[in-house]
Amino acid sequence: MFARKFTVLLEPAEEGGFIVKSVELPVASQGEIKEEALSNIKEAIEGYLEVKAKLLNKKTKGEKAEVIVEAPSADNERVACGDNRRGWVKKGRISTAS
User: Fold this and answer.
1) Helix, strand, coil share (%) of the chain residues, nearest 5
2) What integer best gives the mean pLDDT of the chain?
3) Distance CA 10, CA 24 (A)
4) How far is Cα 65 from Cα 55, in angstroms, rounded to an integer?
5) Considering the entire predicted model, what is its pTM?
6) Cα angle vertex 32, ends 30, 35, to 5°?
7) Do the Cβ atoms of 48 and 68 come closer than 8 Å?
8) Can you name the residues that pair with 94 across neighbouring β-strands?
């Protein structure tokens, strides 16, 4: 097992407390205080990933492989490059994506 980081969004709930949603996964939870909401989303994400891993192991046939991708953050800006490709600008560098 290995640790992974996930981004979550905390929003005040109309009825009080907080709603917390995972950006990368279809998981949400809530709590009366921020710490409770964050603890609950952590537990929900762990449960989601556990079920997903079990289903993946049952359904897959063939070789498993991992890939690493560089994903843009909200701080990056999408721009057109001179050669008709698009790229992401961050801190003055352009990283092109075909």
Assistant:
1) 25, 30, 45
2) 80
3) 14
4) 17
5) 0.62
6) 80
7) no
8) 89
